[in-house]
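Lecture notes, continued. The same structure-token format from the folding unit now serves as the input rather than the output. Read the line below as a description of shape only.
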């Protein structure tokens, strides 16, 4: 399996993913025309010579190299909220105090805001159920961070992720059910479809602009604030391991948490590094082979291209102590478009590796970012 930028030929599968993912997955809605435009925008974004974050949207797919089937998708929006507002509720506490009566009372509030305008947003991660296998989810999640590490000028200093909130098997959100009764008389699927299609004027027109006291919400609505959908928990755990934290901002419609992390502090950005590629031919010099050490953990490997970006998980890579060379199997290097002396970026996918793998984290020779 390997990651590549999405292409127009992937439209049918992307539409199927949008259907499978269900209501609440607003970054991919089952609208073929909208998805075709999203693919076109992504292709143009990868081809653009960006020097700062703009309206670029990068969409990747995970492909099974044996069958050619698309296993899943993942994406990055370079600067969210620039062309249409990115609204959230800020969860906070207000204190009411009467000196005369010597009474003090604290209440929790939700206040609409657009705090994250201009931040880079990771989005659209979906691994199709029939393709869930070892390292597939990690590859879809972490590949975005390696792409950002390779091209930091294209992205903001702060990265966010909006996590899907709680909804039932019928796509009904307890949080939205309360808002619907009091503010916007539309079902959850309809309102998320509007947002996914970019129609957000109704938020200013109908959604509450003044603080909401959460004590006035139904018990069912209060219970799901900052909670994630059960299918989203693995993705949240991966992001928390990367250093992402919830700072109290939640989605307007299902109250799912938004998490954030400085780009430079993301674990995969810090722990990955650039290597020079050497091809591990079976007929290589015996002396060199005797002095190589196998890396005892799977590696996420990327090339350094933009439009021709590729990433995969590889086992069997080797290093030579004291050098910056990473020996890759020939078939892997060819699939990735890597030749001898090319640059690649590598990230160990598991912790607790044996000493040979520790050289990846503490190299004697470091190479600067490739742009």
């Amino acid at each position: 399996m390997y990651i590549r930028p999405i292409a127009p030929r992937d439209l049918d599968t992307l539409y199927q993913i949008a259907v499978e993912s269900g209501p609440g997955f607003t970054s991919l809605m089952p609208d073929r025309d909208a998805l075709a435009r999203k693919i076109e925008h992504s292709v143009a974004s990868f081809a653009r010579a960006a020097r700062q974050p703009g309206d670029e949207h990068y969409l990747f797919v995970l492909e099974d190299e044996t069958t050619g089937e698309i296993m899943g998708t993942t994406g990055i929006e370079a600067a969210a909220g620039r062309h249409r507002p990115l609204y959230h509720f800020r969860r906070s506490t207000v204190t009411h105090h009467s000196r005369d009566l010597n009474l003090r009372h604290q209440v929790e509030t939700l206040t609409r805001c657009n705090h994250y305008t201009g931040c880079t947003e990771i989005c659209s991660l979906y691994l199709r159920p029939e393709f869930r296998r070892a390292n597939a989810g990690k590859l879809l999640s972490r590949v975005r961070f390696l792409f950002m590490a390779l091209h930091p000028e294209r992205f903001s200093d702060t990265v966010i992720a909006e996590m899907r909130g709680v909804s039932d098997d019928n796509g009904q959100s307890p949080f939205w059910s309360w808002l619907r009764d009091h503010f916007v008389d539309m079902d959850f699927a309809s309102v998320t479809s509007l947002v996914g299609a970019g129609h957000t004027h109704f938020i200013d027109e109908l959604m509450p602009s003044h603080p909401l006291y959460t004590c006035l919400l139904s018990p069912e609505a209060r219970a799901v604030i900052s909670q994630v959908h059960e299918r989203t928990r693995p993705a949240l755990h991966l992001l928390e391991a990367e250093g992402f934290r919830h700072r109290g901002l939640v989605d307007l419609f299902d109250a799912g948490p938004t998490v954030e992390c400085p780009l430079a502090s993301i674990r995969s950005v810090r722990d990955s590094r650039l290597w020079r590629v050497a091809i591990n031919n079976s007929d290589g010099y015996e002396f060199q082979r005797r002095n190589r050490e196998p890396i005892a953990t799977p590696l996420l490997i990327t090339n350094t291209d933009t439009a021709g970006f590729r990433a995969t998980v590889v086992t069997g890579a080797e290093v030579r102590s004291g050098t910056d060379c990473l020996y890759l199997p020939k078939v892997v290097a060819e699939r990735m478009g890597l030749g001898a002396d090319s640059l690649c970026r590598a990230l160990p996918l598991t912790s607790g590796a044996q000493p040979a793998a520790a050289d990846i984290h503490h190299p004697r020779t470091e190479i600067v970012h490739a742009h």
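Point for the exam: Residues 61 and 73 are 4 Å apart (CA to CA).
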